[in-house]
Write a structure and sequence with these properties.
Length: 493
């Protein structure tokens, strides 16, 4: 007989449960990446809605001619003899108007998130996600249709943003609950750190897709992502497995547990249960950490989403890049976010100190933000390095809190085994954080006319507040978790 090929032997080495876990991890990664893919275009298109094109050498000639033809065919008005302004964003307070778009989406997202966790507990995750993705695809596409139908009413765009913000709240509690169902606590920080890179991957893809048409036909910058999100909603409906019980994958763990209940193993197991109960009694109050982590995330997300929605505009205005290049460079911030999220997960798994890991990264982020704002006329290489480093330090704590920390708190023993509580805890933490996500871009729109340096000062203050809110938990981790307790915790994980 011929030997079995190496690739086949590798594939067959995985158990049925491992295959389902891997499939669920990859699928939820793609689903939430699609959500973020549809959020990014607005930050790229901002610089095209109000662009100073008085100098011909500041725009690409081909894009300029192409848009002139399209504008003539569609009957679009010109502003000051150019195609650069899109009413109603042609006014002197255009930054506040663009900030209002961000605020409309994020405020609706923050308010809807609290209700979404409660609703998500009572509905099928698969159907809830499918509805959310189809709706999000529709509203994202409708924003882009404003270009093709020559819509210049600010109320239309704000309505679309509010509606999209509400339906996008279906995503995060659902995917985190699904992952929490499939994965235990072991190496949770590492697994979720890698998995949470879907946020940055979605932002990168959204930037590249939106940047493809931003200078020529910005309506497609929304229409194409909308179609992608809706298509992924259909994939979710057809393939998402909510819980191991649905495919009878929970039996393996039960059999392993039953084999341990013999002789010395049974005695050893009872001792471990006793030790764990002491540890849980000591740490039961840790669920109160939901308050600290939620408020910390408010400020951490304020910083992250300010970069998400305003970084391309900053690069275009301050560093004088065109819209497409500014959008492409902004993806480096998300590349840093991937690195920071994984690094935060690895460190927190190794040290078993989630709050301390977040605090260390927040402490380093503030001076890096100052350096980024203080260095004038940076070369391209310096900008690339600063974007990656700042992305890692800003998004690292944000990633850790929204994934591993939320899962830890949502599945804590003091919640009396209510697995559905994970959806509510996740929604509370992310909903509170989303208030900061709404405030950050709004404040940036109000402050930026007074100088971009003032925006960075605001971000540094927010980082400091996030660090202070974790101070009690950091002290508790450093003083209470002695080596013996750490050993008990590691056994529990």
């Amino acid at each position: 007989m011929a030997p079995v090929p190496l690739g086949i032997r590798f594939l067959t080495s995985f158990t049925r449960e491992q295959c389902y876990r891997t499939f669920t991890l990859v699928l939820t990664f793609l689903l939430y990446a699609a959500y973020h893919l549809s959020r990014k275009p607005i930050s790229i298109v901002k610089s095209a809605l109000h662009m100073n094109c008085s100098l011909a050498n500041e725009i690409e000639l081909y894009s300029y001619k192409e848009h002139l033809i399209q504008a003539k065919l569609l009957g679009k008005p010109f502003s000051n003899g150019t195609w650069c302004y899109w009413e109603p964003f042609d006014k002197s307070n255009y930054k506040q108007l663009l900030g209002a778009l961000d605020y409309s989406f994020l405020c609706a997202y923050a308010v809807g998130m609290y209700a979404s966790g409660i609703i998500g507990e009572r509905l099928s995750i698969r159907l809830y996600l499918t509805f959310g993705m189809l709706s999000s695809g529709l509203f994202t596409a409708l924003f882009g249709m404003g270009y093709f139908y020559n819509i210049h009413d600010l109320r239309y765009y704000i309505f679309i943003q509010v509606a999209n913000g509400l339906v996008q709240t279906t995503g995060w509690p659902s995917v985190v609950t699904c992952i929490g169902n499939w994965f235990g606590k072991g190496r949770r920080g590492l697994i979720m750190g890698i998995w949470n890179s879907h946020t940055s991957v979605g932002n990168i893809l959204g930037s590249l897709i939106a940047g493809r048409w931003v200078s020529s036909c910005w309506g497609l910058s929304f229409l194409v992502p909308g179609i992608i999100v809706a298509a992924m909603g259909l994939v979710c409906f057809l393939f998402l497995i909510e819980h191991p019980h649905d495919v009878k994958c929970a039996l393996t763990r039960a059999r392993k547990l039953s084999k341990c209940m013999n002789g010395w193993d049974a005695h050893k197991h009872r001792c471990q249960v006793y030790e764990k109960s002491k540890y849980n009694a000591l740490m039961a109050s840790e669920v109160k950490g939901v308050v600290e982590f939620s408020l910390c995330l408010l400020f951490a997300k304020l910083v992250s989403y300010t970069f998400l929605f305003w970084l391309p505009m900053y690069l275009a205005n301050k560093e004088h890049f065109d819209a497409k290049k500014a959008g492409d460079l902004s993806t480096l911030f998300d590349v840093g976010g991937i690195i920071g999220g994984i690094l935060a997960g690895v460190i927190s798994d190794w040290t078993r100190k989630r709050a301390t890991t977040c605090g260390a990264m927040l402490l380093l982020a503030a001076p890096m933000l100052y350096i980024f704002s203080a260095v004038g006329d940076m070369g391209l290489k310096t900008i690339i390095v600063m974007l990656i480093v700042c992305g890692a330090l800003v998004n690292g704590p944000y990633s850790l809190i929204t994934t591993a920390v939320s899962a830890d708190l949502g599945t804590h023993k003091s919640l009396t085994g209510n697995s559905k509580a994970l959806s509510t805890v996740t929604a509370i933490i992310d909903g509170t954080g989303s208030i900061g996500a709404a405030l950050g871009p709004l404040l940036a729109g109000l402050i930026s006319p007074m100088g971009w340096n003032n925006v960075f000062y605001m971000l540094m203050v927010a980082d400091g507040c996030a660090l202070l809110l974790l101070f009690r938990l950091i002290l508790k981790e450093l003083r209470i978790l002695d080596p013996k307790t750490n050993e008990i915790e590691m056994k529990e994980h």
